[in-house]
Specification:
Layout: H1 13-16, H2 19-23, H3 28-47, E1 53-58, E2 64-69, H4 78-86, H5 97-110, H6 129-136, E3 138-147, E4 150-157, E5 160-161, E6 166-169, E7 175-182, H7 194-205, E8 212-217
Parallel strand pairs: 1-8
Antiparallel strand pairs: 1-2, 2-7, 3-4, 3-7, 4-5, 4-6
Length: about 220
């Protein structure tokens, strides 16, 4: 009889209890890697010519804001967005043709496109569950998208949705804003150093010459 069986982790605990495995470390280097995963998504839009500027702001309270002037994430379907940010569905680790095409179709749904994005443009980015792992490792996260004259908002706390999708009219320019604070009980340091940020972020934006990245401190 096994006296101390290994208990499987459920929900956000799969990420929050294993930051070293997911992000490489649980210090500021792990936070920099988590941020890189989001930048890769915006870099994809930059390569497609649909995202011209990404501003990253590090606040004194440890929170991080990404503001992008893009076409705006398609967030009309609450179930889809909650699944993207809370459902860990890792795909194959190798970029075979079938997986690349499946991801291209999923990316197209994310941006509300009628045609799949060419799979060859997706090779440099990670699968969709990267969005979920960063959200689950955050104390809180808020995602806003302005698109087609509407503002869509989703909020998360401690790895779970915090309320329903909110949609209101808006005259603001189209774009996407993601604000999150890495969880203090997951990471020992919340603010990456500038050398770390340069190493991680510029690598993530490589291959997107039309994307301008701005880093702000404070």
């Amino acid at each position: 009889m096994i006296e101390n069986p290994i208990m499987p982790l459920r929900g956000p605990e799969r990420v929050r209890k294993r930051p070293n495995v997911i992000f490489g470390s649980n210090d500021d280097e792990g936070v920099a890697h988590a941020l890189e995963l989001f930048v890769r998504l915006f870099a994809l839009e930059g390569r497609l010519g649909n995202c011209s500027c990404l501003t990253i702001t590090l606040s004194p309270d440890g929170s991080i804001t990404l503001e992008s002037r893009d076409t705006g994430f398609a967030m009309e379907d609450s179930a889809t967005w909650q699944e993207i940010f809370t459902g860990l569905q890792p795909g194959p680790q190798l970029w075979d043709e079938a997986f690349s095409q499946a991801l291209a179709t999923e990316q197209s749904r994310l941006y509300g496109r009628s045609e799949p994005i060419p799979a060859k443009l997706l090779a440099p980015i990670m699968p969709f569950f990267d969005l979920a792992v960063v959200q689950m490792a955050s104390q809180w996260m808020k995602v806003e998208s302005v698109r087609h004259g509407t503002l869509s908002i989703l909020s998360f706390r401690d790895g779970y949705p915090d309320g329903e999708l909110k949609i209101t009219p808006s005259n603001a320019p189209t774009g996407t804003t993601i604000r999150f604070r890495p969880a203090p009980d997951v990471f020992t340091e919340l603010t990456p150093s500038l050398p770390l940020l340069r190493r991680f972020l510029w690598k993530a934006a490589d291959g997107a010459p039309n994307l301008r990245c701005i880093l702000r401190i404070g």
